[in-house]
Design brief:
By secondary structure, the protein is of the alpha+beta class. It contains 5 helices and 7 strands, in the order βαββααββββαα. The strands form 2 sheets. It has a 5-stranded antiparallel sheet. It has a two-stranded antiparallel ribbon with strand order 3-4. Keywords: Coiled coil.
Length: 189
């Protein structure tokens, strides 16, 4: 996964979508305020998580520069080297095969980088102190405190081996989301 060293976009936007829970649970002044909110309103566990987020313009341009450099500078050199090795005598067959593998690896790298640019997403490692797993409606919802908000970062089905334990402990969460949905409906009416 492509990452710009020591760089973090000004605003993080996760790719996750859910019709069951809101993407943002609120904005907070500090991570401590977010932890207090989660503890008071939801039964949740702090957890480590790598979640998909959208790349910003700088990251996309960095990927384009990298695969452009690979395409314009590295691949032609590798192709030239491949042709040179292919024209050598019978004992050079091994060297020709290695050069061809390098060309294929370069093509695969270019293809992967182009796919990442088109996908426009990358992973982000979330701070376990500010990331919570919430059980609701037979799913695990992961919220994280980032950019001053508690945001939905990831959703997954509850693994079958955990289903009985987690579903029985999700009543507090059901009440919270039901009340939140009622409040949103009242505001929208």
């Amino acid at each position: 996964m492509y990452k710009v060293d020591d760089y973090r976009p000004d605003e993080i936007e996760f790719t996750v979508e859910s019709n069951q829970v809101p993407k943002v649970l609120g904005e907070f002044e500090s991570d401590e305020d977010a932890r207090v909110f989660m503890a008071q309103n939801l039964l949740s566990l702090q957890t480590n998580l790598n979640a998909k987020r959208f790349m910003d313009h700088r990251e996309i341009e960095g990927l384009r520069d990298e695969y452009g450099n690979e395409l314009e500078n590295e691949l032609p050199k590798l192709k030239e080297n491949h042709l040179k090795k292919a024209n050598e005598a019978e004992e050079a067959k091994k060297l020709e095969k290695e050069a061809k593998e390098m060309v294929n690896a370069s093509r695969n790298k270019i293809e992967q980088l182009a796919i990442e640019v088109n996908d426009r997403t990358t992973d982000i490692e979330l701070d376990s102190e500010n990331t919570w797993q919430v059980v609701y409606n037979s799913k695990l919802y992961y919220y994280t405190f980032i950019d001053g908000k508690i945001q939905l970062a990831h959703v997954q089905d509850i693994p079958s081996y955990q289903e009985n334990d987690l579903i029985s402990s999700s009543q507090k969460n059901e009440k919270f989301f039901e009340n939140l949905n009622k409040q949103e409906k009242a505001v929208n009416e």
